[in-house]
Design brief:
InterPro entries: Thioredoxin-like_fold, Thioredoxin-like_sf, Thioredoxin_ResA/DsbE_sf
Subcellular location: Cell envelope
Main location: other
Distance between the termini: 114 Å
CATH class of the largest domain: Alpha Beta
Number of domains: 3
Structural class: alpha+beta
Order of helices and strands: HEEEEEEEEEHHHEEHHEEEHHEHEHEEH
Pfam families: Thioredoxin_8
CATH superfamily of the largest domain: Glutaredoxin
Strand content: 15-25%
Strand order of the largest sheet: 4-5-1-8-9
Protein name: TlpA family protein disulfide reductase
Radius of gyration: 31 Å
């Protein structure tokens, strides 16, 4: 009877015991001396997500968890290695060193990431080789020719690598992979940069917005791309050589003033805000700074991004600015900012008598050079 009772108890204990969970990630390192293998998840920054257990009588380490959120991860070991992974639902994933090469099973997205990283590493090696190709001594003309040749070859290598990365991006739209690929660098060279590859950034932002809009790194990236859109728009609508958009803005008496009324005179526009320290630093010296140009016919027009009419007008009086002043009191939501593509305060836009933009800048020294060239003509 006692034997039967013991048998039943053992059966009950075994049946009630919690089964060991199946690993979602298995890591087989190239070193037998590891004491710690950890997985870090990227949110605002990489934070510890899980710690692996070493399997009994094995070199394999296993990660077990009930829930693994989609995201970018780093597998880190106590020997200093860090391996980037994209975990997106397919489990288990197996990472191992085989013939001194890192391989992965069960995760095609990470495999594509590593492929892109290899392309970038090859580009980096090509750039270093080209950079080291300069002879010890060259005459100035020969040096410039060699330099130009090297730069052209770097751009060729970069373009080839970029084409390969673009293909990987296009084949992995419904993953987080494009988020990482568009930010790849080879040394100091970005494979994609804001000024030349804005459309790539726009496309990737659309992919990510559809795929995983709530993931913090995606939100941060989309925010940067939104700023890029404004910058691209700014450089397109206020590009030197283009006509200034004919926007109407209220003056201090709420009468709409069209910017086209300034045609016939060289005009310097300054977009500013009375609560901006940098703006006020300039407006306090604006009349003295522009006096030589105003004597030669330059007109001044200050377009404010204020929302408080009293503060705006008080600043005008304090800084003694007897010139044109326009403001719709809508602040950052002003359609004027959108119409001119302005993202930074203060910003200068210099326009000639025909209404053609000569220069635009956030830097006073730059706009002074443009003023000197325009007024001398």
């Amino acid at each position: 009877m006692k034997v039967l009772i013991y048998t039943i108890l053992v059966v009950l204990i075994v049946s009630c015991a919690k089964p060991k969970r199946t690993p979602y990630l298995i890591y087989t390192p190239d070193s037998l001396n590891l004491t710690k293998v950890e997985l870090y998840h990227l949110d605002q920054e990489f934070t510890l997500f899980d710690q692996a257990e070493r399997e009994p009588e094995s070199t394999t380490w296993a990660f077990r968890s009930d829930s693994v959120p989609v995201g970018i991860y780093q597998l880190r070991t106590d020997n200093g290695k860090a391996i980037t992974l994209l975990l997106e639902g397919t489990m288990p994933v197996s990472v191992q060193y085989e013939n001194n090469k890192l391989t992965i099973l069960g995760n095609s997205t990470t495999k594509e990431l590593w492929k892109a990283q290899e392309i970038t590493e090859e580009l980096n090696e090509s750039i270093l080789t080209l950079g080291n190709s300069f002879p010890d001594s060259l005459e100035s003309n020969a040096f410039n020719l060699h330099k130009d040749s090297v730069f052209a070859l770097v751009e060729t290598h970069k373009d080839n690598a970029q084409k390969k990365i673009k293909q990987i991006i296009n084949h992995n739209e419904n993953t987080l992979l494009p988020l990482l690929l568009v930010q790849l660098k080879a040394g100091n060279h970005h494979l994609f940069d804001y000024s030349n590859d804005a459309n790539v950034y726009f496309d990737v932002a659309e992919y990510l917005q559809t795929y995983n809009p709530n993931y913090k790194p995606v939100q941060n990236f989309i925010h940067r791309v939104d700023s890029l859109r404004s910058w691209v728009y700014y450089t397109s609508v206020t590009l030197p050589g283009k006509s200034l958009p004919d926007i109407s803005i209220p003056n201090a008496w709420d009468a709409p003033i069209a910017l086209s009324r300034f045609k016939g005179k060289n005009t310097l526009y300054m977009i500013w805000n009375s609560e901006s320290k940098e703006s006020r630093k300039i407006t306090k010296e604006l009349m003295r700074w522009t006096r030589p140009y105003r004597y030669k016919g330059l007109d001044l027009c200050l377009i404010s991004t204020d929302t408080n009419k009293e503060k705006w007008q008080n600043a005008i009086k304090e800084d003694n600015l007897p010139i044109w002043h326009l403001c719709d009191l809508k602040g950052k939501n002003s359609p004027v900012l959108a119409g001119l593509g302005i993202t930074n305060i203060p910003t200068f836009i210099l326009v000639n008598k025909e209404g053609i933009i000569i220069d635009r800048s956030t830097d006073k020294a730059d706009i002074t050079k443009a003023l000197n060239q325009l007024i001398q003509k």
